[in-house]
Design brief:
This protein is mainly α and about 140 residues long. About 95% of the residues lie in helices and about 0% in strands.
């Protein structure tokens, strides 16, 4: 059995081929190409969105760094003010304590002077007694 190509069979095969190409194009290729085009468009749109988000993120990061820098400056200013206030308070307390100690020292010195005078007068009043006891001891020797 041999297949003899006749013009009618060749024409029929050609027509079937054209119908098959038409149907495949309509049913398979166009939806597939449309899907691929929409997918490419979606990917492109998403990548543009990502780039937009990247620029937004960079802008927000820059803004955040500026805010942090301002906050650090304010914190340093507050810290220096607090240190200055603490130094002033400490100096005031030190000067008060120095004054208090100076007053106590003056009172102590005054009490020592009074004690010195009292001891001197008591010793001067007992000098004759000491002389007498010294004389008696010297006579015994």
């Amino acid at each position: 059995m041999t297949i003899i190509p006749t013009p009618w069979v060749m024409a029929l095969v050609f027509v079937v081929f054209l119908v098959l190409i038409y149907l495949l194009n309509r049913i398979l290729y166009k939806p597939l190409i449309g899907f691929m085009d929409t997918r490419d468009a979606s990917i492109k749109r998403d990548s543009e969105g990502i780039e937009g988000n990247t620029t937004d993120i960079k802008a927000l990061q820059k803004e955040a760094s500026e805010i942090l820098q301002v906050a650090r400056q304010e914190a340093a200013l507050i810290k220096s003010k607090a240190q200055d206030n603490a130094k002033q308070a400490a100096e005031v307390r030190i000067s008060q304590k120095k004054d208090e100690l100076a007053q106590k020292y003056n009172v102590f010195i005054a009490s020592l002077e009074e004690e010195k005078i009292r001891l001197k007068t008591s010793l001067e009043s007992e000098i004759p007694i000491f002389r007498e006891s010294l004389k008696t001891k010297l006579q015994k020797l």
